[in-house]
Each structure stands twice: as structure tokens, then as C-alpha cells.
## 1
Amino acid sequence: MRLSAAGLGLGLVGAGVFYARGGPCLTMVNTGLRVEHLWPQWAALLLAALGFGLVAWALPRRWMRAIAVAVAIVTAALAGGRFAYRLDAEAAGLSDRGLLGSTRLPWKDVRRVDAGPALILVWGPGDAQVRVNTAGFTSDQRATLDRIISRRVREAQTPEPSTQSQ
């Protein structure tokens, strides 16, 4: 019985990891861009967490079970993070939602943008920042996001043309 559970658990882990891989989905909307993970990705991570739980139940030693349970909990937290994650680059501003909360930054409040190879930091007043992890993005997705952020920041920083008549 325990051997069957371990085999099933390892199968679930393998299937979960296989289907959870890949970057987020970028969707162009009328006012900008939305970045989120599709349901098969976070559901696959939940499946992998269940698999680690079955493996933990099947393991003979207490310390082995503790490690497998810890990995199952971390995997379930990753699934929750993918479920909750959403980045919106709209006309009003940039908003980032995750497992631990959300941050909204109007474009007019953006002080600077730091772009690294796998991370974009958009700084606002004080220590306010939106961190965009772009490690799973394709080069086209990253370029699209870079263009939208730079265009929105440039538009917000450009003063309105004067409407005075002479």
C-alpha cells in the first residue's frame, strides 16, 4: 500500500512539475497589459504538492517524512503565489498583486525604472516599488512589457500642452 502511494505520489510530482513550467500569460487589454499565470500552471503545482504529501505518507522514517511535508508546503505556497499573481499595466498605473498583498503605483508617481536581466523595479515615492520578475518571460513578452512601461512613464512625465489662447 505504501509503495503504491509512493509511486502515485512521484507520478503526481512529475506530472505537476511538467505542466507547471512555463512563463505567465500576457494579455493585451484595451487600456494596457495584464500578466497572470493560467489555471493549469497553479493547479499542476497543487497536484505536485499532493504528490509530495503522498510520498511523505509512504516514507518510513520520521525525518524523511518531515522533509517531504516541508517540500509539499513550499510547493503549495508556490501554487498559491501563482494563483494570486497578477500584474496590470493600465492607463491609470501599474498594479501588482501577489500572495502577500498588492501594490498600486500611478504612472505620474514613478520616479525611476531599473531593468535587469530577470527583474524590473518600478520605483515610486519613498520606498514604494513594484517588482516584476521576468525570469519566465520570453524575449517578446519582456520587450512588450518594457515598451508599455516606458511609454506610460514617458506619457505621464510629459507636461500637458498649454491651452492658452493669444
## 2
Amino acid sequence: MLRRLVTLAALAAFALATPAFAAAKAAKKPASTKKAASTKKKAVATPTATPVAEAVATPAPVKKGKALDRTFIKTTRAGWQEVVVGDKVIATKDNGKKVTGTIKEVSDYAIVIEPKGSDRVTIARNDLAQVFADR
């Protein structure tokens, strides 16, 4: 539970630091309301449309895949390891067998790997010794 809260806090900090959010924040600030010293001259209103305002109108594309599916799983040999859905890996089981394939799903308790040309393999975290990147 604490890990999920830390992840949520990190994602919120990243979202607040993005340029699109900063531009939206700048666009929401009210213009200053200073009165002119002379009543004889009228101030000419300038258009407030800027490229920043146009960028705010179009939402940023949502990244899918590696940015959102990054998580950690506890293994028996290597401890906590970061894994990403969609990455090609070599997973070593406690009994010495190796499974090479693409990560399809990751949870707190298991990892699902799909080897090339065969069915998906689910490995419980108690049986998972270590995960290596397959390059």
C-alpha cells in the first residue's frame, strides 16, 4: 500500500512539472486591473491569444505502455526488481528453469510472460528467482 502511495506521489509530481500543466496554470492567472491615470485616453485592448493559450486548448497525448505499466515485483534471489509490461525478459525460476519472452502482466503476487510461439506462463513471486532484460 505504501509503495502505491509513493508511486502516486511521484506521478503527481511528474504531472505538475510538465510544460502543459505550467502553461495551463499561467493561462488561468487573471490580468492585472490597473486603472489609467488619464481619463482622456482609452487604453487599446490587445488580443490575449498567444501560442501558449493555443497549446492549452489541445490536450497532450496520453502515453501508453512503458510510462504507465512500470512496477516492482519481489523476487526470491534479487529482492525488489523493476519490471515493465511489454519488455522482453529472461525470468529465472527457483528450480533453475528459465522462461524467455515478453512481459504481458505484472501484479504484486505474480508475473505473466508470453514466450514467442507458445502460451502464456504465469510465475508466482515465491517461485521467481530473478528477472533479466533480454536484449
